[in-house]
Amino acid sequence: MALHWMRRAWLVAASASALLLAACGGGTVDSQFSPDRVVAFGDAMGDLGQAGSRYTVNDGTVNNWTQFVASQYGRDLAPSAAGGLSYATGNARVTAKPDAAGNSGTRTVKEQIDAFLAGNKLGGNDLVMVSAGTSDVITQARLVLEGSQTQAEMQANLEQAGRDLAEQVKRLVSAGATHVVVAGPFNLGRSPWARQTASTGLMEAASTRFNGALLVALVDYGRTVLYVDAALYFNNQTADGGSDFSNRTEPVCTSVDAGPGIGTGNGQVNSSLCTTSTLVANANPAQYVFADRVYPTPRAHQLFGDYAKGRIRDRW
């Protein structure tokens, strides 16, 4: 068993290297790529307000990482519900239904891509961003916490979900995309939800399973696909001694949702309901990593977007 896990760890590391490093001869150069369009798919980590609000502090700023990246290229990115090219939708899973909050009407990532490709084409001057997997991790981890499935079943389901996301990325490449940025879930073992439920190990294993399967399935796509490591980035931001934030463990929002909200249980903070009027008393949201039990604050999104933009610049 130890040998099996060492082999798995080596394969995931090799896959990550293939997708993180430029596929054109080593060394970095100034970016020559300037997209004509930015298109996005995914879950709440990329939702720009399909239902009118975002999963962060809704303060009117550039408060989502995908929008931040688009803005760095001087490109607009708006939700498809408002006529834009971001199809990412809160609580959406990769291919499975219902969504993380139990809704069957939410478009999966596959269905988002279906909808885009039904009326659009992709080309070499498009930047496509896919930010998904968090809702699948939430769903599967919650089932374990509720006693509805075993941890082994969770891990198998998340490996399949990671492979499913890789297949959707491959669809985008087959449709003509040559610059696809993929971010899987960050390590939910570092989330307030994990701390509040004493399940840091469970959620770290869940996130790792998804990302590992995704990376292995995309190992041959390093020329057209760039993996932006959200798990590594947020691990650094939530580590003790991190300098960007003073509060790395608690939500800054107080906007409790009586319903299922973000999928972590009824009666919990839901950042899609959060504004500057629903914050912890005297709190500065710029000093917090998390808006709710799972999703980041505007500043955390912006910093991750800056990290992603740097990775894109270095690659293309």
Automatic annotation (TrEMBL):
<keyword id="KW-0732">Signal</keyword>
<dbReference type="GO" id="GO:0016788">
    <property type="term" value="F:hydrolase activity, acting on ester bonds"/>
</dbReference>
<keyword id="KW-0378">Hydrolase</keyword>
<protein>
    <submittedName>
        <fullName>SGNH/GDSL hydrolase family protein</fullName>
    </submittedName>
</protein>
<dbReference type="InterPro" id="IPR051058">
    <property type="entry name" value="GDSL_Est/Lipase"/>
</dbReference>
<dbReference type="InterPro" id="IPR036514">
    <property type="entry name" value="SGNH_hydro_sf"/>
</dbReference>
<feature type="signal peptide">
    <location>
        <begin position="1"/>
        <end position="22"/>
    </location>
</feature>
